[in-house]
Amino acid sequence: MTPRVRTPRRGLGAAMAGLAAALVVPLAGGAAGAAGQSVPGAATAVERKTEAAVLAQVADDGRATFWLRLDSTADLRQATARAPRDKAERGRAVYRALTEHAEESQAGLVALLEDAGAEYESFWISNSIRVTAGREVLEALATRPEVVAVEAEDVLPARAAEPPAAPEAAGADSGAGANAVGWNITDIRADDVWNDLGVRGEGVVIASLKDGVDHTHPALAASYRGRSATGAVNHNHNWYDPGRVCPTAGTPCDASYNGMATRVAGVLVGDDGAGNQIGVAPGARWIAAAACDATSCYESSLMAAGQWILAPTDLAGRNPRPDLAPDIVNNSWVAPSRAGWYDSVINAWAAAGIFTTYAAMAWDGACGEVYYPGELANSYTVGSYNASGLWYGSARGDGADIKPDITAPGTGIRSSVPGGGYDTYASTYLAAAHASGTVALMWSAAPELKGDLPTTRRLLGDAARDTGDLTCGGTVDDNPTYGEGRLDAYAAVTAAVAARSTD
């Protein structure tokens, strides 16, 4: 199922006109029929299901943009139970289940929207529809039994949960410069994996999801999946910009406010072949989606990007290829309050065997501060430390559901910046990239584990260096400050190889 996108046309269709006339409901006061008679239950249904912000917008402007949440979801357990262990086949099974369910369950709503000439876009990954329409269409939709909620578009601040203070000074933890492996790489022993085990992430693809990447950077160009060995570039199925945040359509850019997107990619895979070994898994390939710009992350763009991750399309949004889905998706965004609408995306990725990493960002270090969607069970959430201990920008969870899952270096991190250069920066987004890169090393060394999320998470936790901080509860082995401890890539990779040999 290719996402349906419909732009408005003039006037209502005949059938829609009749339906709308029967369901016209004043936004204030009771319901009224065509002859001024009360329509029992109509106003109640609209008001009960529709978010106040949507009602206010349509009252003020005559039309609104809103989301229709449907009452059913695809059975991904059944879909994957029949799928073979191969990750590509699992991805296809999940894609089929989601698209077929959305096609069937959205059919009535789509027919109504088509007849009304309304502007809409359907999403199979969440079984929801984004609509821009006036009052009559809104009321007709809200009274449909399969619609459980009508909600406003969520817009997240792109800098959500960034610590309020300036980043730590360059070289704060190591003083590492060009032609030197940074303290962060040696701390997690990724360089030992390269040198002793000969593993650098080959055969694994990591997606970076937030606001793009500078694909021409010397440390990133060669590892971009859209670039061939001869240097030819093909962005189809490798780059996605649903919000049109880049100046040139179809061409990757870094749209972040501080070059964070390119910094994160550098920690994932960066290596210029001339001594700047900044990435944990320099042998892995990367792709990217830009769902945010320098100031905002729109729900619709994040949802579209999440859908693309599961089944990458060409630049025209056609020819979805679930077999080209990445193995890992590294997210560099958080929601300051529980959005809820991304649960379906995270769960679909997990069903398809895609490892999902989020940063445990913090404002004040209070217990129970891990932001959505990092708080979800299917998100692998990473806190950050520096040479002295837990960084103030790392969120602490609580004893009820321990998050973060693990911690990694997050300050004094030398990485790539847009335009071809390098600098040193501090962010828990960078810490999360260390965990994503480590999973790439594990799956490169033990391909049989690719897509096996429970085993991978267990091995990561067991290999971590226990760090006891019981400020927010927990145990030395697993607490809401350090999770299961400090990331140890070498121990995790050797454990993965051992697990492969006994599988």
From TrEMBL:
SUPFAM superfamilies in the record: Subtilisin-like (SSF52743)
GO biological process assignments: proteolysis
Signal peptide extent: 1-34
InterPro entries: Peptidase_S8/S53_dom (IPR000209), Peptidase_S8/S53_dom_sf (IPR036852), Peptidase_S8/S53_subtilisin (IPR051048), Peptidase_S8_subtilisin-rel (IPR015500)
The species this protein was found in: Allostreptomyces psammosilenae
Lineage, broadest ranks: Bacteria, Bacillati, Actinomycetota, Actinomycetes, Kitasatosporales
Alphabetized PROSITE patterns for the sequence: SUBTILASE (PS51892)
Pfam family of the protein (one): Peptidase_S8
GO-annotated molecular function: serine-type endopeptidase activity
Record carries keyword Zinc: no
Keywords of this entry: Hydrolase, Protease, Serine protease, Signal
Name of the protein described by the UniProt record: Peptidase S8/S53 domain-containing protein
Family, similarity comment: Belongs to the peptidase S8 family.
Domain (Peptidase S8/S53): residue spans on this chain: 201-469
Domain of life where this protein originates: Bacteria
